[in-house]
Amino acid sequence: MITSLYACLLTFIYLISTVLVIRRRRKLRVGVGAGGDHELKSLIGAHENLQNYFPLFLLLTLLIEMQAPWRSVALHIFGVLFVLGRVSHLYGMAKAELKKEPVFLWRMMGMMATLTSLTCLALFNAYLFFYLRISM
Questions:
Q1: Burial of residue 102, with CB atoms counted within 10 A of its CB: 0-12 exposed, 13-18 middle, 19 or more buried
Q2: What pTM does this model have?
Q3: Which of 45, 77, 82, 118 is deepest in the core (most CB within 10 A)?
Q4: What is the CATH number of the domain that holds 77?
Q5: From CA 28, how far away is CA 11, in angstroms rounded?
Q6: Rounded CA separation 30/48 (Å)
Q7: Structural domain of 47
């Protein structure tokens, strides 16, 4: 299943994000919150952001896969776009303390890719819902 592939990839990204937060917490000896550290706050934000979009992406992908398994190429396009968006956003957030323009660009590109992927998946699901209803 295509959804399984992206669930695995996103889980690895999530685990990397978790490790980045834990390493920074250990370095600063902060158990809860960000302890006033901008970098830790950015890492926590990226981690939470991934956590928010991850389930919605998988649900939309699974619904399409169940309704239209012949659309695997489209699902891979949206999946790769989403994964690249999440990696780009995490990179931009992890480097946020640099406060340089390219870092913001990584975050912006990551969010654009994420939102484009989710929008396409939602529209595709809506299309399939109405298409399958009409054709019955």
A1: exposed
A2: 0.86
A3: 82
A4: 1.20.120.550
A5: 26
A6: 17
A7: 2-135
